[in-house]
Design goal:
328 residues; mainly alpha; Rossmann fold; Tyrosyl-Transfer RNA Synthetase; three-stranded parallel β-sheet; two-stranded parallel sheet
């Protein structure tokens, strides 16, 4: 049996080069060896206020980006979270198994509550339980997450153990998954901070649908240093970041890229990074727009995905409901 991977992406912002190199592109490499289930988690997105038209557009756009990145709908299950009602239902059941203290210790909640005070929505407090439901519904073995979400996977494991101990073996205990492919991509203006779709400034963020001229400008203005040497060093985070981008896209080792650029200045490094980025993003953009221009194809993909997801989720949820005493 192939191990099952579950991952969800919020349609709350435009995806970036970091998302592509760190996740989307790599998922295509997993689809023959694993059973992947991917969701556009629109229920998570509404923990903060969303513009309805923009949320609708980004949900479909994110789905198109998955597919354009090489993730085959025939080998992966794609669906929109709100199309599978079992997520919300299991989330409520698990909420009743979760302690207030556990949720109040979640780092992201503490950070946001300090900024927003009493006006923070309740959904931001309880959404780790919804995340747990997302994972446990599909008996996922592995969950690819960044460091900022690993605490939530630990909560998921705790809830699974608690339920299993109380009602008998029900849930698989998931583990975090670290991809063997790729490296982290950092903000071009602040190369000590990860490139993020939620960054306050977009000057250092390359979005997947940025125009070529915008990409050229952002990379040409990327922060380097006064050392003047192209070398892969933690003392030169800006240079290191550009080298990572080039190596990942060209499927070369860092040593090969550094050796080829040896003796050149930072302009040559930035030019090389620009051409590398354009070489992948321009065909990617073409395929994304093709999909967005064919809503029937996208609809067929997410409808079929939701049907398969419901088949799996319903089995888990019925088992849970039966064990806790609900009348089925």
């Amino acid at each position: 049996m192939k191990k099952r991977i579950f991952s969800g992406v919020q349609p709350s912002g435009d995806l970036t080069l970091g998302n592509y190199l760190g996740a989307l592109r790599n998922w295509a490499k997993l689809q023959d060896d694993y059973d992947p289930i991917y969701s556009i988690v629109d229920l998570h997105a509404i923990t903060v206020k969303q513009d309805p038209e923009l949320l609708h557009h980004r949900t479909l756009q994110n789905l198109a980006m998955y597919i354009a990145s090489g993730v085959d709908p025939a080998k992966n299950t794609f669906f929109i979270q709100s199309h599978v009602k079992e997520h919300a239902e299991l989330s409520w059941i698990l909420t009743c198994q979760t302690y207030m203290g556990e949720l109040s210790r979640m780092t992201q909640y503490k950070d946001k509550s300090q900024r927003h005070g009493d006006s923070i929505p309740a959904g931001l407090f309880t959404y780790p339980v919804l995340m747990a439901a997302d994972i446990l519904l599909y008996q996922a073995d592995l969950v690819p997450v960044g460091d900022d979400q690993s605490q939530h996977v630990e909560l998921t494991r705790d809830l699974a153990v608690r339920f299993n101990n109380a009602y008998g073996q029900t849930f698989t205990l998931p583990k975090t998954y670290t991809s063997p492919f790729g490296a982290r991509i950092y903000d071009l203006q602040t190369p000590t901070k990860l490139m993020s779709k939620s960054s306050e400034s977009t000057a250092g963020v390359i979005f997947l649908l940025d125009e070529p001229d915008v990409i050229r400008r952002k990379i040409s203005r990327s922060v380097t240093d006064s050392i003047g040497l192209i070398q892969y060093s933690d003392d030169q985070p800006g240079v290191k970041n550009l080298l990572n981008i080039i190596a990942l896209i060209q499927d070369k080792t860092i040593e090969e890229v550094v050796q080829r650029l040896e003796g050149n200045g930072y302009k040559a490094l930035k030019d090389e990074a620009t051409e590398a980025v354009l070489s992948v993003l321009q065909p990617l953009q073409h395929r994304i727009y093709q999909l967005l221009d064919d809503p029937a194809e996208l609809s067929a993909i997410y409808t079929a995905g939701a049907e398969r997801a419901r088949e799996i989720a319903a089995v888990t949820l019925d088992d849970v409901k039966r064990k806790i005493g609900f009348v089925l």
